[in-house]
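Project outcomes to date are best conveyed with an example. Our students and postdoctoral researchers have been running inverse folding experiments weekly, and each run begins with a structure described purely in tokens. The record below, which covers 146 residues, was selected by the lab manager from last quarter's runs and is presented without edits.
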């Protein structure tokens, strides 16, 4: 049985390019909705799992740097699962060459009713250019195991 949690992360971030005297170049990621489209796994912003995660504020991210946030994934189903992370639907497509999303999940089993704290990290390559706005979907898949 496969449960998929698709978190649509519409960053539509403004890439602030100032190639003036200080040559500052930054990516401003504004708060956008995250849509959870599956039953069985939920994502929260707090350890007590009271606040369903609906947005992420990445703040200003400079090329060559990264930002991390802590999320809490709860198995609200009745089977043990393992999680996987992927991204898809990058707009523009070339943004995926310069922006990446990783996490610190180590493959541990997530039992029914249990909560796992995870860190999501958004990293921007120092090579990024000509991208002013972008969006992508985060897909967290919970695969039932025996």
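After processing, the design step wrote out the following sequence:
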């Amino acid at each position: 049985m496969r449960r998929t949690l698709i978190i649509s992360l519409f960053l539509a971030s403004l890439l602030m390019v100032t190639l003036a005297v200080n040559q500052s170049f930054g990516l401003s990621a504004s708060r956008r909705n995250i849509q959870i489209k599956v039953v069985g796994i939920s994502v929260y912003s707090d350890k007590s799992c009271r606040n369903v995660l609906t947005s992420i504020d990445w703040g200003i991210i400079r090329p060559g740097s990264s930002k991390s946030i802590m999320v809490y994934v709860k198995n609200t189903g009745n089977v043990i699962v393992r999680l996987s992370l992927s991204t898809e639907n990058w707009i523009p497509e070339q943004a995926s060459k310069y922006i990446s999303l990783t996490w610190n999940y180590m493959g541990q089993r997530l039992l029914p009713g249990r909560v796992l704290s995870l860190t999501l990290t958004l990293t921007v390559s120092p090579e990024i250019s000509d991208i002013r706005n972008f969006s992508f979907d985060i897909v967290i898949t919970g695969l039932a195991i025996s």
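The chain has one domain: 2-14+26-144. Residues 1-25, 28-37 have pLDDT under 50 and may be disordered. The training component of this project remains on track.
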